[in-house]
Amino acid sequence: MSYDENQPSARPRRVGRGNLTIAIAALVPTALAGWLVWRAMSGPEDNEPPKVLPLPSRQTAGKPGPAPSPSPPVSSPAATSAPSPSTSPSKGNVSGPLAGKVVVVDPGHNPGNFRHTSEINELVDIGTNRKECDTTGTATNDGYTEAEFTFDVSQRLRALLEKQGATVKFTHANDRPFGPCVDERARIGNKAGAAAVVSVHADGSAVGNRGFHVILPALVKGGAADTAKIVGPSRDLGERIAGKFVRATGSAPSNYVGGGTGLDVRKDLGGLNLSTVPKVFIECGNMRDPKDAALLKSSSWRQKAAQGIADGIGSYLLR
Ligand code: ZN
């Protein structure tokens, strides 16, 4: 979820039987607006409009995610079935199209944050003001945590990027008790001299709020925060990720943030304010909505999500 649960954009949309037709009618222009952005940013091969709010198939969404476990998250199947979770940069295919490009992937939150609330509530300097180190993140109603989701998608993303030759670095490897704090997450991308940084999240909004959105840095200046040089390239990165995400997942842009564009601009996120390299967040879906949750819990959908993000990054790096 986003770092600010009280953001005004998280307005609920109630969809009951009586107003279902009206709700669907309202979603059509939303999806079309998102498609226009997607179409504008996609190549000539991308000529199909996205499906509007597709229902999950039995094959991809029938399996509930694991409940939160008191054991260290590194022992979870999701963590062990994917590539090494080390934060060390690792080089993939040296002859791939992304060879020589450094990408930092930031898996949102940490499964241990739930057990370290006092530490993650401590304020850190985000330049423009002071803010909590991090939050616990959200979870589905049956206990699949955002931190598990973000780490799983991040590992899939790493594998896809390395296959194309990129050097990928993580902000954390799920092997620390909590954190890193948002300021440290930003510094990791900066120090790596990353060509692109993507922070992976899922939202925790009201039932009926569906779809993904990419969060872009606003123009801010204060203390160590100065986004003047990254606002433009970050928007380019974010628009390409949004377009490719639609194409890879078939999901529609958010129906509750961004007016159907799948894009939102925020000035309150330390991870963006303190970045000196192009960076965006992606909220892949709403964990508190049962239909979105079914997608987020599906490993095949998570692979598509990672593919969409990787395609967007690749498109940006090869622009
Ligand atoms: Zn989050």
Distance between the termini: 30 Å
Share of residues in helices: 25-40%
* Order of SSEs: HHHEEHEEHEHEEEEHEHEHH
Q: Kindly name the structural category.
A: alpha/beta
What is the CATH domain class? Alpha Beta
CATH architecture: 3-Layer(aba) Sandwich
Q: Counting H and I runs of at least 4 residues, what is the number of helices? A: 10
Shape: globular
- Unreliable residue runs: 2-84
Count of domain modules:
1
Please outline what is shown here.
The chain is of the alpha/beta class and 319 residues long.
Describe the structure.
- The protein is of the alpha/beta class.
- The chain has one domain: Aminopeptidase (3-Layer(aba) Sandwich), CATH 3.40.630.40.
- The protein contains ten helices and eleven strands.
- The protein has helices at 20-41, 58-61, 77-81, 117-121, 146-163, 182-191, 231-249, 270-273, 290-296, 299-317, and strands at 90-91, 102-107, 123-125, 130-132, 167-170, 196-203, 213-217, 221-222, 225-226, 263-266, 279-286.
- Strand 8 (221-222) and strand 9 (225-226) form a beta hairpin.
- Helix 7 (231-249) runs antiparallel to helix 10 (299-317).
- The chain is globular.
- The relative contact order is 0.21.
- Bound molecules: zinc ion (ZN).
